[in-house]
Design goal:
Blueprint (H helix, E strand, L loop, with lengths): L10 H16 L3 E2 L5 E3 L2 E5 L5 H14 L5 E5 L20 H14 L4 E3 L19
Parallel strand pairs: 3-4, 4-5
Antiparallel strand pairs: 1-2
Helix pairs in contact: 2-3
Length: about 140
Amino acid sequence: MAKKYSNVTNYFEMATKAIQEMINQVGAPKFDENGIIQKGVMIRHLVLPNHILNTKHILKWIKDNIDENVYVNVMAQYFPTYKAKEDELINRKLTRREYNEVQEYFYLLNFKNGYMQELGEHEEEYVPNWECSSI
């Protein structure tokens, strides 16, 4: 039986080591003649409401520790589903103020290959209606 972990206090350490190892193995992205990525690492970070300092910490770590040729994509598409709706810290989408604060910091860091996703309004429309059935 697999052990279930409820404490993720070392997540940052584990995730950053995994990212570094992925980069060691495959490197920065390589594109074909049409601009489609063929190989390499792109770091995507999803910004959560009430966790802007966490996002800033992660972006600063990427800037200080990762080769500038690696692509960084900051995603603003979060919306709460399932039990996240019950958590007062993440039971809503990002506010415009939160988005602007992250965007300002992101551009201040001046990533060579960085992209900031626009703050959307209709993300929920793209989520399938999952149904559970017994087998």
